[in-house]
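Quick one:
INPUT:
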């Protein structure tokens, strides 16, 4: 612990795991392994996002998530980036994942019917049909970008269906998601203004869809559900945009980056790919393991509402805590010494934290699992093997943990 404290006083804290290059260069594992071993709850006094506590092991992450009144989602938002109340150009766009009870409960209840088991059953045939179409268009034996051709195409199509969004404009959803989810933009005033412009464009587009449906009967799309909800029908423009962005980013990034991680991870661990190819009954468990191994959102943030103690550390009211799901999902005390590896038949893969824990657990978790599972099943039907053909281009940020590009070739096994 003393060694860790001395190292943390250097100009660049090696245990400031918010640094974007750790994720761009895929070098985040070593500092997190040190944190888990030596300081599971570690204070970083200086970072580009200000001071924060790193919570890097499974048990304290679950403890914080289980006490939503003590550790607020609303007080400071859900990312390590700060909202600057003193900045006259800062615009707050509330979203229900970044609200505390009772607002969070009421708004979450509004959209949750879109993700029930019966809805998954209703949508599964369409998801399978669209997945088959995408896979059948792929060029065998030729290099292409898996991220754009498969991951983005499938997840953007699913979002368009959830919103009943004009199909010809569906790539706007990806564009808005990429701008909204890039945590690094907060460091650049010009990019912040560009993002704000794009968010207003998003809001204007969706407001038109809202107005077209406002006097129509309830339909199973998310806009109609909001219109017919006491909790969400009277949102102002900024809250409207905020909740749209939540649903777009949540529906896009989790599934999209796990689908990309699927291609990369199975190529990286050919023995596990062989297990899955030999026994497709492992697919449901492999879905959970792929989500754990990829962890498509690296962290969520909470803010202490009062002085408290967490694993022997004194947390002050107003302190920021970064819950590093990406590290909790590597916790050796839960997932074993092989936690860094992809193991498709891992017995406790479903214990992963990639969807969060407690009242803020991802509302669309079932849908993400369904989409990823169907993709693996349709690949198995075609005996399709994805071979990575070059180094991936990764997202350079500590929030969305994913891929910009992944060159691949496909072959039969």
């Amino acid at each position: 612990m003393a060694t860790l404290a001395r190292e943390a006083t250097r100009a660049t804290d090696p245990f400031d795991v918010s640094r974007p290059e750790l994720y761009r260069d895929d070098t985040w594992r070593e500092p997190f392994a040190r944190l888990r071993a030596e300081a599971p709850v570690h204070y970083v006094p200086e970072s580009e996002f200000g001071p924060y506590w790193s919570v890097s092991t499974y048990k304290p992450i679950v403890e914080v998530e289980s006490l939503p009144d003590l550790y607020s989602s609303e007080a400071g938002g859900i990312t390590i980036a700060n909202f600057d109340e003193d900045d006259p150009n800062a615009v707050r766009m509330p979203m229900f994942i970044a609200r505390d009870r009772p607002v969070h409960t009421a708004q979450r209840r509004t959209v949750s019917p879109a993700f029930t088991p019966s809805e998954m059953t209703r949508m599964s045939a369409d998801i399978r049909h669209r997945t088959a179409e995408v896979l059948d268009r792929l060029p065998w034996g030729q290099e292409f970008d898996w991220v754009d051709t498969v991951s983005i195409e499938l997840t953007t199509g699913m979002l368009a269906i959830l919103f009943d969004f004009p199909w010809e404009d569906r790539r706007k959803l990806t564009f808005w998601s990429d701008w909204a989810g890039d945590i690094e933009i907060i460091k650049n005033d010009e990019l912040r203004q560009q993002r704000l412009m794009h968010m207003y464009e998003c809001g204007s587009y969706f407001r038109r869809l809202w107005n077209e449906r406002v006097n129509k009967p309830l339909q199973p799309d998310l806009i109609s559900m909001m219109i017919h909800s006491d909790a969400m029908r009277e949102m102002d423009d900024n809250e409207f945009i905020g909740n749209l962005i939540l649903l777009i980013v949540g529906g896009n990034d989790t599934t999209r980056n796990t689908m990309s991680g699927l291609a990369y991870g199975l190529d990286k661990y050919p023995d596990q790919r062989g297990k899955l190819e030999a026994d497709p009954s492992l697919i449901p468990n492999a879905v959970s393991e792929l989500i754990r191994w990829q962890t498509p959102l690296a962290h969520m943030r909470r803010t202490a509402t009062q002085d408290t103690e967490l694993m022997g550390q004194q947390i002050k009211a107003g302190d920021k805590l970064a819950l590093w799901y990406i590290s909790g999902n590597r916790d050796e005390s839960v997932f074993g010494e092989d936690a860094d590896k992809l193991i498709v038949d891992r017995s406790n893969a479903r214990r992963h934290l990639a969807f969060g824990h407690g009242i803020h657990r991802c509302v669309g978790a079932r849908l993400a699992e369904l989409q990823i599972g169907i993709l693996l099943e349709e690949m198995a039907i075609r005996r399709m093997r994805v071979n990575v053909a070059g180094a991936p281009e990764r997202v350079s940020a500590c929030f969305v943990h994913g891929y910009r590009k992944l060159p691949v070739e496909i072959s039969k096994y």
